[in-house]
Amino acid sequence: MRPTWLIESGVYRSEADAFLAEIRRQGMIGELVPYAALKQGNTPIVGGRPLGEGACAIGYGTFPFARQIQLHHRWTPGAWCNPAMLDCTVYYAHFGRFLLNEHYAILPGVEAIRQADWLFDAFARDGRLFVRPTACDKLFVGRAVSRDDFASILSPARYDPGTLVVVAPARPIAREWRLIVLEGHVLGGSQYAENGQRSVRAELPAELRAFAERMFTDVRWRPDPVFMLDICESAGVLRLVELNGFSTSWLYACDLTTVIAELSDFAVREWERSSP
Fold first, then answer.
1. pTM score, two decimals?
2. Backbone dihedral region of 13: left (phi > 0), alpha (psi from -120 to 50 degrees) or beta?
């Protein structure tokens, strides 16, 4: 038994080629699947035949793609992305002392717009705040903003009063890395940004692993058995940026051979535990 990998088509484009090639090199089926093929009542054709309910399959793409699998298909593991546990309102309380945004406020987006003057007085650094939605589906992209741009950046929240946002001081970030975590152990990772610009490098310094392991020793809580951990260097100190779902986050230049092999084996174990 080996899992089937379902990669959402049209999302990662040419970057998905190496991913699919490694899946197939390891003897597994990997297919590009459009989101429409997963809509309720539809069954994708994989390897020349319908992928039946109860199959061992791993989805990888956008948040709606992963949720479509979770809500409408009985595949195991299906998708590793737990939106409830990956909300900042949940995991910030566990990893608070390691966070880049260690000092923050969480409130509805529309209320943040109303309270903008107070928020800038309380949290702004050099006239800027960092703001992001708490939810992992990210109604808008988190960023540092000035007072003049604050209301416009939060404007998507006007149409959903229930949208909560994180407001925190804007802090300088030198480098950023993404780590892939399986049951509290780092499988691999990659640098993806430097000084706010995309900078992908296939490197994972030893101090990053040590930082992650220290967090996982202190914090036993996990959002999912498999997830992504984004870490940055700010003012010479390593800090946790955010947690993300594995099935909805790109791998950049991580070691695909190791990650795909380890996660495929783990998926089979999950499938065996859940199957009659």
1. 0.93
2. left
